[in-house]
Write a structure and sequence with these properties.
With 141 residues, the chain is mainly alpha-helical. The chain has one domain. Helix content is 77%, strand content 0%. It has helices at 2-36, 42-55, 57-82, 85-102, 122-137.
Length: 141
């Protein structure tokens, strides 16, 4: 996060520093919601905030979308390779219905605290989505 703030500050002065803080708050804030419902770990939220501070607020939404697409592809791979397709789809519907009814409460069964629940290293999705954005959408264009 500090590197992003410093980088944007050096490249764009105070305006860059402000854009970096806004990106940090937006990207980190969106992923903080996943942490609140125990669907994502705190390290992933900190990584999201750091990415937001590096790319700045103007690139935060495209990087978030690229990360979400990479995360979806990774989740499908994990789901198929683990042989948990039906269980995952059932849990997705179950959790969606729960959050529609109860808001941002932690689901009593499907959460990070459940030791038998599947885990996915979302850092890979951050890396793939950010690399895709940097190489094809934003950084060099």
């Amino acid at each position: 996060m500090v590197a992003g703030l410093v980088l944007q500050g050096i490249l764009h002065g105070w305006k860059g520093l402000l854009l970096s803080v806004e990106g940090w708050l937006l990207f980190g804030g969106v992923f903080l919601l996943f942490y609140v419902v125990r669907a994502m770990g705190a390290g992933d939220v900190k990584l999201a905030a750091a990415l937001g501070s590096i790319v700045g607020v103007s690139a935060t939404v495209p990087v978030m979308l690229a990360t979400a697409c990479a995360g979806a592809a990774l989740a499908i791979c994990f789901m198929v390779l683990s042989g948990r397709v039906v269980e995952t789809l059932r849990n997705t519907l179950w959790v969606t219905g729960f959050h529609i009814q109860h808001g941002l409460q932690v689901h009593p069964v499907v959460n990070l605290d459940n030791p038998v629940g599947g885990r996915m290293p979302y850092g890979l999705a951050f890396a793939a989505g950010t690399a895709y954005w940097a190489l094809s959408l934003g950084w060099w264009s």
